[in-house]
Amino acid sequence: MFDQITIIGCGLIGSSLLRAIDKKKLSKKINVFDKSKEAQSFIKNNLPGNVFDDINESVKGSDLVIISSPLSSYKEILLSIKSGLKKNVILTDTGSTKKEVNKVISNLNLKDVFWIASHPIAGTEYSGPESGFAELFENRWCILSGEDQQQKETLEILKKFWEKIGSKVKFMAFEEHDYVLSLTSHLPHAIAYSIVRTVINKEDKLKDQIIQYSASGLRDFTRIAASDPIMWRDIFIDNSENILKVLDSFSENLHEIKKAIQSKNTEKLNDIFSSTRKLRKEIIKAGQETDKPNFGRK
Amino acid sequence: MFDQITIIGCGLIGSSLLRAIDKKKLSKKINVFDKSKEAQSFIKNNLPGNVFDDINESVKGSDLVIISSPLSSYKEILLSIKSGLKKNVILTDTGSTKKEVNKVISNLNLKDVFWIASHPIAGTEYSGPESGFAELFENRWCILSGEDQQQKETLEILKKFWEKIGSKVKFMAFEEHDYVLSLTSHLPHAIAYSIVRTVINKEDKLKDQIIQYSASGLRDFTRIAASDPIMWRDIFIDNSENILKVLDSFSENLHEIKKAIQSKNTEKLNDIFSSTRKLRKEIIKAGQETDKPNFGRK
B91, B59 in Cβ contact below 8 A? Predict the structure, then answer.
């Protein structure tokens, strides 16, 4: 499909892409750059692709360049690769927010570069190149966002690329993407971090018991609160406007429950607790979740 | 092990107990009472045990009586069965809070009744007798709480009973139980309900997208927000004191994250997001969770 692809940043997502591109034979050559020496040596010893020490060298001659590193590193990366990019290269990323990133790229005024953002909705609570696997994107959504209507052809190529990786592709405007994800992903993460911190800040004498009885609800939250800290720090800075808004709306909902508990308003609590069951049914119906109790976990 | 057991309330937990007692042959006879006609007919057609229409009749002659109905129904149930209880019967329950329940029972001044509370930390997001299964309690904790030191013998019998059902048994004082569970179970549920309500209160035009991209975090919360509303209403009323305290402490933690986002304090966010990974590792190490990414969900 491509003659040469470059992956910049080879953590969970980047290394899964590397494995998938290799497995599905989507490129004759794959170049890989990661600034971590540890990651470089892991890739050399365990994964396909040519590992580069020099980021600018790694993009030379590539038809597709994928940035798969934390959002805060984009600007530096783009400045470093700018002069090495091939004419009419397709530039994409795998980041979780879009609006600010798009501003950064627009401001760079890259010439003869087709920039289209990708967001594969896939991941696990583990990070690093050793955690990746080729099937990570299979049956997952990948959201593409581009500004320029003239990019239709490029959009089609990138859509096919992600479909060959195994994903289902959707298009979305930058702003809409950031708003929807602030609800489905960023809010749940902020909450999960807060809840886990509430628990770990408690006195140590009950800590063993808290861990022992975590199956009663807590453990589900610890999974997403175990995600990569740097990635999440960058998402919260980047999409702060939307996230602060939904956090306020969450706090109002929590306050409603608090008030109902304080006033022992059983009817209100009943209403609140009944209203939420429907959403799960809809998510299961949409094929986004298993209907096995406990996620099928034994 | 017993000559006759009565189960009062035959939903997810009660019917799982019924199945497990039958499967492991822990009683010669099993009596079942459920006030719902629908449940009665389901049990008659699909499950072992003798279904009773009269709750007082159902406990007569039983050596062990297990209340497995919502906390708010305990008082009425106890008043109804009081006169039918056999001398030296063991009375237990499967409720999720203990302190208030214990007060209710103490106030009734039951004579020749050995009351010990049970809390099996097991359940799924489904309810009703059709959702139960004999293996629900296997390898799960069951917390026993009793006040009277002279009940040692009864405690031992009940411990063996739960162990034969497949559970690991711990003893805990009523107060400690309610505090620990307010952190590991009740807080996560309050939060899950709030988060799902935050999302479902949004305009409908983005609803399809929200459901589509729920795999990015939201769907994990919808599982516990789909639990039985009546059961949870009762828990929040019963354990309100502890729950309101931990909710306040949660709100403080959330406010800390909000402040860090507002001031774009990357260092603080990094600290917050790094601090939470350890707890998950400890939970996995304690055997309370699978270490498979995504709970092994495909």
Answer: no
Assess whether the region B2-172 and the region B176-264 belong to the same CATH fold: no
E strands, chain B, are 2-8, 27-33, 50-52, 64-67, 89-93, 113-115, 117-120, 141-145, 168-171
Chain A residues within an 8 Å CB radius of B274? 229
CB atoms within 10 A of CB A45: 8
- The tens digit of pLDDT for each residue in A122-146 reads 988 889 999 999 999 999 999 999 8
Domain boundaries, chain A: 2-172, 176-264
pLDDT in tens, B150-177: 678 899 999 999 999 999 999 999 999 9
* Whether pLDDT at B139 is above 60: yes
Burial of residue B149 (CB within 10 Å: 0-12, 13-18, 19+) is exposed
CA distance A77 to chain B (A): 19
How many CB pairs (< 8 A) connect A and B? 348
Q: Which superfamily, per CATH, for A2-172?
A: NAD(P)-binding Rossmann-like Domain (3.40.50.720)
Beta-ladder partners of A114? A90
CATH class of B176-264: mainly alpha
Which string of DSSP letters, residue by residue, matches A35-50? S-HHHHHHHHHHSSSE
What is the pTM assigned to this prediction?
Answer: 0.85
